[in-house]
Amino acid sequence: MRFFLKNCGILLVLTGALLLIVPFFLHFQSNVSLFIAWTIIIIGFILYIVLNKKIP
Predict the structure, then answer these.
(1) DSSP category for residue 51
(2) Residue 28: DSSP 8-state
(3) CA triplet 6, 7, 8: central angle to 5 degrees?
(4) pLDDT band for position 41 (50/70/90)?
(5) Picking from 14-18, 43-47, 51-55, which range would have the lowest pLDDT averaged per residue?
């Protein structure tokens, strides 16, 4: 369980990056999809920092 918690932030960042990459190749770019991906990346980055400070 600790392994998943330590890597939860990285998984969110990768998910956000995929949400940026897939619409680019499908030629479907809207501000909503870009904002959702950006939000997921920021949350994942913050979560990664917080969880790696708390979990040894």
Answers:
(1) H
(2) -
(3) 100
(4) very high
(5) 51-55
- Residue 55 — pLDDT band, cuts 50, 70, 90? low
- Structural domain boundaries of the chain? 2-54
What average pLDDT score do residues 20-47 get? 91
Contact predicate 36/19, CB 8 Å: yes
The token duo for 50 is 């917080």
pTM over 0.90: no
Vertex 19: Cα angle to 14 and 22 (nearest 5)? 115
User: Per-residue b/e over 1-39, b at no fewer than 16 CB within 10 Å?
Assistant: eeeeeeeebeebbeebeebbeeeeeeeeeeeeeeeebee
